[in-house]
Amino acid sequence: MNILFVSSGNKKSVKSISPIIHKQGESIRKTKNKLDYFTIKGKGIKGYILNIIPLYKVLKTKEYDIIHAHFGLSAIVCHLSQLFRIKKTPFVISLMGSDLLEGNKNILNKLIDKYVYRIIKNKSNHIIVKSQEMYDRINIPGKSSIIPNGVDFDLFKPLDKNEIQKELNWSKEFKHILFAADPLRPVKNYQLSESALKRIKDYNIEIHHLVNVNHDEIPKLMNAADVVILSSLYEGSPNVIKESMACNTPIVSTKVGDVSKLFDNVEGCFLSDFNEVTFSNQIKNALKFNSKNNSRVKIEHLREENIAKKILAIYSEIKKQNGKQ
């Protein structure tokens, strides 16, 4: 199959796209399918609108079996770029969480959400969401699937904590907590983590943040940390949680997205509500945890090659249906 990934292209990473999206694309490429990337340059509504004609030109010069749009705004570009084409290329949309779950949106963004939903419901061939909450929110049974992002098990794996701490120059006099997000993003609810950590008097704690870190360096931070924490207000299927689990690092997270499901019967992974006392106590439990963590084994099904197979199955079904039309 010839596949085109469409996504924002403003990241300071490989091909300027999200490392998660790029890794998903490369996992599909490994199956001997052909895949190209169309990156949307520019931010905001204007930036996306300016990419409609360039995408139209790409689709005019090269034939694809499937277009896979990542995030709702990319779906708008995919739809409008084919508005005047006689033979339209079927397209799949992946919604990541912020598309559906993020609160406090202004009137313009709410109107955009309504337009995106119309495209999702009426124009796309299939929708991929990351959690049951997202699936229930879009409420389009028969046309949507829950497929979380996969994990690169070759990159995210257990490493020797003492060696990594020495390499990072992290003092052994402290317990090291990794806040697995940018604390300046309101959705990540850093205030809860900060308040919870202030309540812990039993340990000397040093907090680290996941900001401006090369994706390939993240496994080192996760392995060096005594505990990884995430206090988000909402998520789809947070990649940092699954990646930390693949490293067998103890984790504390709020009950968002599919985290409860991921942590079910997993030792070393602790759920919390949004109460700072509860969150603080769960961090203490994680710091005391000294048994062998079994989290990596519990997410074997989320290896990126397994996720690639599920996505390809959707592409194949759409291609088959499209061939009958």
Concise synopsis of the structure shown:
The protein is α/β, with parallel strands linked by helices and 325 residues long.
Which features would summarize this protein structure in a list?
six-stranded parallel beta sheet, about 325 residues, Rossmann fold, alpha/beta
- CATH-derived topology of the largest domain: Rossmann fold
Q: What is the CATH class of the largest domain?
A: Alpha Beta
Q: Could you state the order of secondary-structure elements as H and E?
A: EHEHHEHEHHEHEHEHEHEHEHEHHH
Look at the structure and give the mean pLDDT: 91
Sheet of most strands: 6 strands, parallel
Helix content: 40-55%
* Shape-level CATH architecture of the largest domain: 3-Layer(aba) Sandwich
Rg from Cα: 21 Å
Shape, per Cα inertia axes = elongated
Distance separating the two termini: 18 Å
Number of helical segments with 4 or more residues: 15
Descriptive account of the structure:
With 325 residues, the chain is of the alpha/beta class. It has two domains: 171 residues, Glycogen Phosphorylase B (Rossmann fold, 3-Layer(aba) Sandwich), CATH 3.40.50; 141 residues, Glycogen Phosphorylase B (Rossmann fold, 3-Layer(aba) Sandwich). The chain is 43% helix and 16% strand. The chain is built from 15 helices and eleven strands. The protein has a six-stranded parallel β-sheet. Strands 8-7-9-10-11 form a five-stranded parallel β-sheet, with helices on both faces. Strand 3, helix 4 and strand 4 form a beta-alpha-beta unit. Helix 1 crosses helix 15 and helix 4 crosses helix 6. The mean pLDDT is 91.
